[in-house]
Amino acid sequence: MEQHKFMTLSRHIIEGEKMHPEATGELSYLLRDLSLAAKVISLEVNKAGLVDILGFTGDNNVHGEQVKKLDMYAHDMLIRAMDHGGHLCVMASEEEVEIIHIPKKHKVGKYVLLFDPLDGSSNIDANVSIGTIFSIYQRITPENTPGTLEDCLQQGTKQVAAGYVVYGSSTIFVYTAGHGTHAFTLDPSFGEFLLSYENLQIPKKAKIYSINEGNYLYWHKGLKKYIKYLQEEDKETDRPYSSRYIGSMVADIHRNMLYGGIFMYPADSRHPNGKLRLMYECNPMAFLIENAGGRASNGKQRILEIKPEKLHQRVPIFAGSEEDVKMVEKFMAKAEKEE
């Protein structure tokens, strides 16, 4: 690994704000609070097998999916860590039907936080890497008033920061504030996130594809042809590709951040809008990927330019190395012309 000067997450955020005279410091406090929540969630994830926290709560979330106990722990922890700092006007979680208002006893701020508290939670019992995803916007409604749904339903291009936390063999906090994508690894010996990768750059092209091939039967014709293309042997185009699919978006995207490749969660005949959520998963990941030199689209349109219509809106996503994403877009466009 490349050697770095000793740099904590807090220091990195503050030094980044120094480069922007208009910065007030509020965003750095907000990201600090998020990193604290991540440390606490990480502790619970690491000891989940030792306490009565694994398994289902018996409830379903807004999407009709069974809720894992650790999901709700992460959801509650993020709210408790973020609702009283005075920096937020409203929050929204993948686990809640409606927006989450800041309690009246606390000051409201100028930022909006949307989050997926525990992505990949179906893998919890199997001890596979899972994660938290977050997205931050500036409010568009008047200051000093409660935040609204309008504040949450902004295009991804309006994000001021986004990130994810991977809970795996180590805990890694990856974020962007629009000026590069940076990764920090938690040192458990003294509880600090330390810089491990500065200005991550996704390779323009790689040999890894990530998709649930069990859904092949239901895919778009162009996507089927693209996958077969990746599996063919051709030395000139450095094929075949390797298939690597974890089933946890955070883990799959993080691998592609480091090694390149393409992550795909497409629409299919059963799910014409895809399954991943625009506001909680696709927008923040697209923002991170683009700031690392990659590309993210729904197969036709840049993810960050999609105008959201609903809080829990779903979209297809193709994200990762720029040339690989462009290639799948070409296959799908060509198949549509042929129909």
Map the helices and strands:
Layout: H1 9-18, H2 26-46, E1 56-60, E2 66-68, H3 69-82, E3 88-93, E4 100-101, E5 111-119, E6 130-138, H4 149-152, E7 159-167, E8 171-176, E9 181-187, E10 192-197, E11 208-210, H5 221-231, E12 242-243, H6 249-259, E13 262-265, E14 276-277, H7 278-291, E15 295-297, E16 314-315, E17 317-320, H8 322-338
Parallel strand pairs: 3-5, 11-12, 11-13
Antiparallel strand pairs: 1-2, 3-4, 5-6, 6-7, 7-8, 8-9, 9-10, 13-17, 14-16, 15-17
Helix pairs in contact: 1-2, 2-3, 5-8
Q: What topology, given as strand order, has the largest sheet?
A: 4-3-5-6-7-8-9-10
CATH level 3 topology of the largest domain: Fructose-1,6-Bisphosphatase, Chain A, domain 1
In which range does the helix fraction lie? 25-40%
Count of DSSP H/I helices: 8
**Largest beta-sheet details:** 8 strands, mixed
| Oligomeric state of shown chains | single chain
* Helix-strand string: HHEEHEEEEHEEEEEHEHEEHEEEH
Number of E-type strands: 17
Alpha-beta content class:
alpha+beta
Q: Supply the CATH architecture of the largest domain.
A: 2-Layer Sandwich
Strand content is 15-25%
Keywords:
339 residues; Fructose-1,6-Bisphosphatase, Chain A, domain 1; D-Maltodextrin-Binding Protein, domain 2; 5-stranded mixed β-sheet
